[in-house]
Amino acid sequence: MPVLKIGLPSGSLQESTLNLFAKAGYRIRVSHRSYTPSIDDPELEGLFLRAQEIAHYVERGILDVGLTGQDWILEHDADVIEIAELQYSKATAQAAHWVIAVPEDSPIKTVKDLQGKRIATELVNGTRNYLRDRGIEAEVEFSWGSTEAKVRVPGLVDAIAEITETGSSLRANKLRIVDTISETTPRFFANRSAWENPWKREKAQNIATLLLGAFHAEDKVGLKMNVERGNLDQVVKLLPALNNPTISSLLNGNWVAIEVIVDERVVRDIIPQLKKVGAEGIIEYPLNKVIY
User: Fold this and answer.
1) pLDDT, tens digit, for every residue of 224-268?
2) Are 21 and 28 a contacting pair, CB within 8 Å?
3) Residues 168-179: pLDDT tens digits?
4) CATH H superfamily, domain 4-91+185-217
């Protein structure tokens, strides 16, 4: 039986990645004592690695496909095939950002003030490229961890380049953002040789379709309702549909059934309005996947 080897991120992205795969239909069981999870698809063989390493192993062909942030693909200049962008992170559905940060009382106010300074980060190449593009010469050193703490210790470093989603951790450490280096989102990508294999390519594309469908469904719900034909136009005007709503005739010819997909955040506002203009039997239901 052919097998597709997939690299999955451990650490901060692990839980959100497992949740997304579960919504896509893949049950992945993780043992704290093993890097190899159990996947309920015999055609998939998984391996958990640090997000920073996955692009490297996919490029080398140790893995056929992988999922990690675009930042780490660029950091390693990995020659891989991007299949899909998945805009999720450990805390939000928004892109994460790499930023230059300094203590709140630091004299560094702008990018130009980084000239001749020392910066600690895990994103060494990305930070160096950012500084070079702006004509800034500074020392960029690799940080093995606890990056936010290093800039608080006098004499260690003058600034850090760190990834953030909401900025809450930086604020908690009394750090101030000077500038944004780049934004990043997770990418699903393939080794070039694996991509040339028809079976592996189709398998990877099918996984991408299901993952994207699960992601697109996360902030949407379905609505069903019955509407008297005389009120149909007023009801339809209230529906911010993904596409045109599905309208079906009922046995009683004066009534129709409407089904539509809407953003979950607007449901609490539009359901009372729908009821006011004559919608009845309104049902809201969750969605697992939305395939465009």
Assistant:
1) 999 999 999 999 999 876 668 899 999 988 999 999 999 999 999
2) yes
3) 889 988 999 999
4) Periplasmic binding protein-like II (3.40.190.10)
Which structure tokens are listed for 92?
């939000």
Alpha carbons 35 and 38: distance in angstroms, whole number: 10
Taking the C-alpha atoms of residue 251 and residue 78, their distance in angstroms, rounded to an integer, is 60
CB 64 within 8 A of CB 194: yes
Any idea which fold 96-183 has? D-Maltodextrin-Binding Protein; domain 2 (3.40.190)
**Do 96 and 69 touch, CB atoms closer than 8 A?**
yes
Which residues pair with residue 221 across a beta bridge? 262, 286
Strands 65-69 and 186-190: antiparallel
pTM score of the predicted model: 0.85
User: Which residues are bridge partners to 44 per DSSP?
Assistant: 4
- CA dihedral for 190, 60, 39, 88, sign (positive or negative): negative
Q: Who's near 236: CB < 8 A, 6+ residues apart? A: 245, 258
